[in-house]
Give the backbone structure.
Amino acid sequence: METQLLEVVRHKRVSPVKRPAAEGGNREEDPGGGKRKRARHASPDKTMDSFALDDSDSGSDLDIFLSPSVDPSTLCPWCDEPLPAHPTPHLLSLIASARRRSYADDRPTNPLGLRAPPDVFVGVCQRHRFERVWVPRAGRRGWPMEIDWGALRGRVEALEGQLRAIVEDVDEDFVPGAREVKAELGGERRRPRKENEFWRDVVQNVKQQGSRQTTGVRGQFQHFNKTQPGYYGELGYVIIHQTLCDLFPPASFDPAAALPLTPADFIAHVLVPEAALNLIMEDLKLDRADALKTLRESVEYGVAMFPADEGE
């Protein structure tokens, strides 16, 4: 997602003067014998839920001079597009860092403008576009814009009991001899692991691709949305994952208990999303089905909103 925004910023040329008409291109004859540019229409395939930003989300190249009604301090110093009304601390940090490596560039579109090599400010433009367009949309869906990171570890630790039930419910389909235990119990007891959505996803993927490919780089890429903690993002993943590794040290696992995964992969593919699902249920007062939908729909928002380096 961030890569897509990055490409948008890189390919958009920002200039204080009007861009000349392109040679050739899509033109049609007007009645006077001259040529005029053919109107371009938005693609019907572009949806509002795409992280790609169209021209309606950014400033127009035809705005050569700053409108007197616009406060230049509300514009990005580099691309002259409007900044979000309430920038996050992460965006403010990015702006401060880029400002130190830029120099003044008073121009008609922004008397407070700055200039720098693109690699200095592209992250700023990527971030403020995200915050100006996507943060309000996320707010309408009830996704948080701030998370109490200091309390997150304790909240995950409070889930230890139900998570341990998943760890200890060995799947007899992958462990020799476990079928006999199930038969002795009549097969009627509740199965925290076998009933778990994330474990069922793992089993399905292993049957289709094998355990090595499921947990390999390609498998992780293919199933990225199913193993992430939703709107808790990268920073949330780091905290949740570390807490779970402390609660269930991979070295202390019975190797057979995690089959067909390794203990480390079991934590990443099953326990991390399960913990996040329970956190979302608590946050938004949702039932399990709606929380699971939110978990998967908010992954891209979480990755962009709460990157891992925000906690540094």
Residues 1-62, 179-187 have pLDDT under 50 and may be disordered. Residues 72 and 207 are 58 Å apart (CA to CA). Strands lie at 27-29, 35-37, 103-104, 114-115. The first strand starts at residue 27 and ends at 29.
